[in-house]
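S1.2 Input.
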Amino acid sequence: MSNRLTNLIASVLLILMFLLALFSIKGMSSTMDELPHIPAGYSYLSQKDYRLNAEHPPLIKDLSAFPLLFLNLNFPEEHPSWTEGVNQQWWFGNQFLYQSGNDADQIIFWARIPMILLLVLLGWFLFYWARKIGGNIMAISVLSLFTFSPTFLAHGRLVTTDVGAVLGVLLATYFWLKWLKNPSKKNIILAGIFFGISMLLKFSLVLLIPFFLIITLTYAWFNTRNFKKVLKYIGLAILVGIIGMIVVWLVYEFHLLNYPLEKQFDDTKYILESNVLKPLVNLTYWMTQKPIFRPYAQYLFGLLMATQRVAGGNTTYFLGQVSAAGSWYYFPVVYFLKIPLAFHLLTLIAMCCLVLKRSLKNCFVRFNYWIKNHFTEFSMLVFLLIYWLVSIKSNLNLGIRHVLPVFPFTYILVCLVIKERFKNIRKPLLKKIALSILFVIFGWYIISSCLVFPHYLSYFNELGGGQKNGYQYVTDSNYDWGQDLKRLEVWIEKNNIEKIYVDYFGGGDVFYYLGEKYLSWQGTKSPSELPSGSYLAVSATLLQGGRGEPVKNFDQPAGYYNWLNDYEPIARAGNSIFIYYIQYDKPHL
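S1.3 Output.
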């Protein structure tokens, strides 16, 4: 395939991804994490104050908020959630979006545009790197998998840190490998800058530190076999890290310009008081009181908040059970159910290619040779191993979005293995058959993605029940993140519903959209409180949370929505909000 044709196809794919992401946000309401992220980002740029949402680094929120600076928005600077509260991000988010005279839909739309552009940038860089590794056809294959990934299309439209984290992993790893292979001043500086940027995208990317340590030591030893030269590489790695930390300091310093030192200290102490990592907590307290170290104090504060939340877990529905404790098989199961079966088939083919006609003879020698000559691929495998192990051990089971950083390297490795094996097929007939099979698999992958438009968040593969039934296995950001509230509004208007009880999960404000038609409902109430002839709308996350069986020692209410098993929903708003018509002649006690 010529370079010109390759560039044309890549451009078409990236434009198509932009359009799919853009048009699929029509009718979407704010998702759960966008409620704090969008207002927090706007507060950073307009107020230069970092009192909100410190548990996430600022860079993604800054990008999302940039278009908002041109909208002449009302900022509720006198509201208690801003003046008195400690990280009252949810309260402030609702106040900023829905209670201050702003157009919430306009804000949400423009905040998402930079995220979609970031998604396209990620696609371009993935294509660029895959092309350098495996050539034109492999690059187009990798980009096709990315372009039609339901998971990237789902989360690449939203103001969250997940897709930004993927870009951070790719950029930081690419430039780190570049300086390892050629430690020039330019490459060292670039590696430091992009390492610093990655630290500003998501706190989970601190995993890059042990990852870079492992690949640096491995590269230095396999290529020098000299202890002094290994020490030189370690020294250069430290220098790269220092450059990265300077980048972090500069960005955080800007965000603290109008954040009073006293409030920063008080907020930090209030939130970290119960944190068990006392040495780091005390270090954060100390740095907070030293102006020069304030940026690092705020960064460490956010990192401790994030690790504290991971350790504490989150109540979630998974495979019929409700629990606040993490499950080691959560992410493997969700990955299996949420990824198109066509890609699982490609992965299986790649694994078969690896073991086919492989001998254990001289395996150690061949492994050493492979590492030296395929160090980029080796590094990707190391990252996948680290990230999967940490994810499996995590208590925070909130969605497939948390393992998004493993996707691009998996795409590259799978396509590379298949490409190399395909190249070695000598018989023309077998090559034609193999090519036909690959075309069918990629076609299946693309079609399965297109069929779910615009409901990418609720995508499940065929074995996962598809977009209509995936909620039976797992919810939250895997299926229902509050995206369909505006679609509920449309259904109510279309059907002339005067009043409706709503139990909603998400970042939208029900009264903002439904007004006086909205009647508040909590699932833990007795169903006898619903008048005969009532309409009831329930988000899938809350519905399944009220149906699931509690695990042992789980002391929160459970099973309170089992009475709805006797009813069939009369409609759905999108995929995620179930609408029921409640009658007394149906059992509901």
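S1.4 Remarks. Strands lie at 316-318, 321-323, 500-503, 518-520, 534-539, 549-550, 571-573, 577-582.
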